[in-house]
Design brief:
The chain has two helices and six strands, in the order ββββαββα. The protein is mainly beta. The longest helix has 10 residues.
Length: about 160
């Protein structure tokens, strides 16, 4: 069974990062996700049951998550759900795993600083190294900036807007 799922929760274990003999980066950790609801009769929040997931990421997502995510962080992720039954000599159970497609900090609980990484994988979609997914505006260096640009520059401490 493989379904897409989005989950938010608390990173419960320190992420474990390995690189296989074939050079495949893998990062995994356990995630605790507890649903809460407001009990109007008692005027307080009540925790529901906690669901536990094993989260696994591969390739560039594994590299980025290994350096960005830590135990105790609140995260949101989207990935492919895999439920597997297991059994050994005296016990049996169910593993619930999510292979992450996207993973990041849950900004409901705090702030984050994003730093873009450039993959060492050669993506040959363009011949020019200057091409970017979001090229700079042609008027970024002009002296006639808008009021909004002046506000951005003043509030961020930057000389000019993006």
């Amino acid at each position: 069974m493989s379904d897409t799922i989005t989950v938010s929760g608390l990173v419960a274990t320190a992420p474990r990062h390995i690189v296989t003999g074939e050079g495949l980066p893998i990062t995994s950790f356990r995630l605790a996700s507890t649903q809460r609801r407001f009990d109007r009769s008692n005027q307080r929040w009540i925790d529901g049951e906690t669901n536990w997931y094993t989260i696994t990421s591969f390739r560039q997502l594994a590299i980025n998550s290994a350096t960005s995510i830590g135990k105790g962080d609140r995260v949101v992720l989207t990935g492919r759900l895999k439920i597997r039954e297991w059994e050994n000599a005296d016990r049996s159970g169910t593993n619930i795993e999510i292979e992450a497609d996207a993973l990041g900090h849950d900004l409901m609980w705090g702030t984050a600083q994003f730093s873009r990484t450039i993959s060492s994988v050669n993506h040959t979609t363009s011949d020019s190294a200057d091409d970017d997914e979001f090229p700079a505006s042609d008027n970024a260096d002009s002296d006639d900036s808008s009021e909004e640009g002046e506000l951005v520059a003043a509030s961020s401490g930057a000389e000019k807007p993006f």
